[in-house]
Amino acid sequence: MYSIKMRASQNEGHISGAETICEASDIERMIATYFQKGFQHENGEPDFLNLKIEKVNLPIVQIKALPIIDHSQLKLSQLAASSHISQRAIEVAWRYIRNDTCYRGAIILDAYSGERIDEFGERGCRATHFCFKQQREDKIHNERIKDALAIATIFQSNEGVVGELCVSDDLNYTTGYFANHQGYHRLYDLKLKGSREGGRVLFVNQQFHIDAFTYFCQQQPKCVIY
Ligand code: PML
Ligand code: MG
């Protein structure tokens, strides 16, 4: 199997990214798909596009996708409270999401104090080396949701991660999610159209170990099964 990754940027600012793990026979199709995605993005015209193909040498672990919970009346404050995330940590998260930096990955906050505990800087922590497979009859057809569900599931599979808030940094996409151990809760109208604000913030408790987390998210090959 091969890991395929794409990232596109403009003036070093993030435009678009994507990744999967696939068979050798699918590499050509995937790089064509990602090339299109990177170059036809509403966030802007890239001046840099990187495609990376790597052979996967470690065994791939399978993880079960979080259930999708789609109740339009869900409130972030209630979800956060049920995951023991403080109001203060949520306020800090919004500040990171609304600032001018487009992080490529997630930033990590203490769920109680709201203090940032990672050292990933402006890059943030990405989930990498993964693919998404569907086994259910009622398949997800939306590529964006497949990708977001895979990433949310990978983050939630780590000890000490109690929640994740995601707001898309895509210009006109206003739906995001809050993930916790119960599932992937879709949240509507998180921002106004025409804004690049967005990002992923993880909330963690005392059980969290950054080294184990980083290895699992970035080195361990994973297949998220829905
Ligand atoms: C992204 O665009 O990177 C994040 C997508 C969030 C998807 C939310 C949803 O529609 O369920
Ligand atoms: Mg995006």
Automatic annotation (TrEMBL):
Q: Which UniProt keywords apply?
A: ATP-binding, Biotin biosynthesis, Ligase, Magnesium, Nucleotide-binding
A GO molecular function annotation here is: ligase activity
Q: What is this protein called?
A: 6-carboxyhexanoate--CoA ligase
Q: Which InterPro entries match?
A: BioW
The record's Pfam families line, in alphabetical order, gives: BioW
Q: Name any cofactors this protein relies on.
A: Mg(2+)
Instruction: Tell me the superkingdom of the source.
Output: Bacteria
What does the record note on quaternary structure? Homodimer.
Q: What class of enzyme is it?
A: ligase
Known pathway: Metabolic intermediate metabolism; pimeloyl-CoA biosynthesis; pimeloyl-CoA from pimelate: step 1/1
Question: What's the catalysed reaction?
Answer: heptanedioate + ATP + CoA = 6-carboxyhexanoyl-CoA + AMP + diphosphate
Entry EC number(s): 6.2.1.14
* The UniProt record lists the keyword Acetylation: no
